[in-house]
Design a protein that fits this description.
Low-confidence stretches: none
Largest sheet: 2 strands, antiparallel
Mean pLDDT: 84
Order of helices and strands: EEHH
Shape: elongated
Number of helices: 2
Distance between the termini: 10 Å
Length: 79
């Protein structure tokens, strides 16, 4: 157990929970990247191009969260 910022005891994260989160975020990032490529191929106006760009940014955010979850998993100690 570790102490939280409010002085309360916090249980450590389980080793496999962040691996599961990384898998979910990674798959979501791949799906969003695929959708953004499909949208960009059909974009013929500025707002469709902007929408495809926003979906691509969401894909980047999901992949970043997956990397952070894997990094958390590397530093977790089994109990």
């Amino acid at each position: 157990m570790t102490m939280g910022t409010n002085g309360q005891a916090n249980p450590r994260a389980r080793l496999h929970s962040s691996t599961r989160e990384a898998l979910i975020y990674g798959l979501a990032g791949m799906v969003f990247a695929l959708v953004s490529v499909m949208l960009l191929r059909r974009a013929d106006t500025w707002y469709l191009t902007l929408g495809a760009g926003l979906v691509a940014l969401a894909a980047v955010a999901f992949v970043a969260k997956a990397i952070i979850a894997l990094h958390t998993d590397d530093h977790a100690s089994p109990e």
